Amino acid sequence: MKKKGNSIKIIETIADKHRLNLIRCVAGEEALKELDEALVIALQKSSKSLQTITEFFTLLDSPKQDTTGTYPPYTTENRKVNIVQNTQELERAVKSIRKSKLIGFDSEQRPTFTKGETPHGVAVIQLANLTECYVIQVKKVRNLSSLFELIEDDNIVKVGVNLTGDRQALYTEFGVKMRATIDIDGVLSKLTSRDSIGAKKAATIFLKRNLQKSKKISTSNWEAKVLSQKQVKYAAEDACVAYDVTIHLLNTYPFIKEAMPSWFASKNIL
Predict the structure, then answer these.
(1) I need a surface site. Which of 99, 108, 250, 262 has the fewest CB within 10 A?
(2) Are 154 and 94 in a shared domain?
(3) Which of 219, 205, 214, 260 is nearest to 237 (CA)?
(4) Cβ distance 229 to 83 under 8 Å?
């Protein structure tokens, strides 16, 4: 088909759920199956890059659920997990983590259970790279300036999942503006019409790992003087999984950069 000399691509003609439903109503379910089979055959003959993109979209739109529990649990692997409780430990942590161009980021707050209750503020901030993870007990550190400088540093990319709340809490409590941030959930949501991905689902889809999320731990007292082993594990994994998913995406599906903010290309990550 041609219109005024411009080619009308068949994929643009039918790639709409309302039109596909119309095809189903008019021509029947078998017609859609024939169309699907034809596209599968065409993709088998296509370039490797197109096949990879199609594989990626399939994972996003039709993720395989670990219904049998066969995926191993997600862990921080061989990273050294460090708990930071004072200014000296924080400065050492920041100096070390600054060696990375990209880090995983997350934060925790003591939950509120009453409507209208004033938020308790940021209690824990987690930073992770390939070899280390720092769980920083914010309220125990007197001088947080080195941490805030890192958070506001345009040269260090901070990746996380659903960072809106973290960003708002840091600005409200400390006047700190997070810069150079990538919200992986936001990036992936641009490329799928389905529900939000989230950290647990991203770990399942891309890492083939089961990120164990406990509501009991997530709503525990993050202002405790001594964090429990389960709290440290939960906090560390949240920052590490953001890092691991991002690195996996960049290595396996490098075209994901096209869905990231325009400034990301200048950072020369990987």
Answers:
(1) 262
(2) yes
(3) 214
(4) no
How open is the CA angle 168-172-174, to the nearest 5 degrees? 115
Q: Among candidates 201, 244, 164, which has minimal Cα distance to 62?
A: 201
Q: Is 72 domain-assigned? A: no
Domain region containing 11: 2-45
Per the CB < 8 A criterion, the answer to whether 158 and 128 are in contact is: no
E strands, 138-267, in order? 157-160, 181-183
**DSSP state, residue 206:** I
Within 10 angstroms of residue 181's Cβ, the number of other Cβ atoms is 17
The span from the CA of 162 to the CA of 36, in Å, is: 34
pTM comes to: 0.84
- Note whether 171 and 246 are same-domain residues: yes
Is residue 67 in a domain?
no
3-state secondary structure of 33: helix
Residues 243 and 149 in one domain: yes
Number of domains in the chain: 2
Q: Are residues 115 and 227 in the same domain?
A: yes
> Is 193 a residue whose pLDDT tops 60?
no
Q: How far is the C-alpha of 144 from the C-alpha of 167, rounded, in Å?
A: 16
Label residue 45 exposed, middle or buried (CB < 10 Å: 0-12, 13-18, 19+): exposed
**CATH code for the domain in which residue 148 is found:** 3.30.420.10
Cα gap 22→35, rounded to integer Å: 14
Confidence of residue 59 (pLDDT cuts 50, 70, 90): confident
pLDDT digit string (tens) for 213-227?
999 999 999 999 999
Q: Does pLDDT of 5 surpass 50?
A: no
The pLDDT assigned to 125 comes to 98
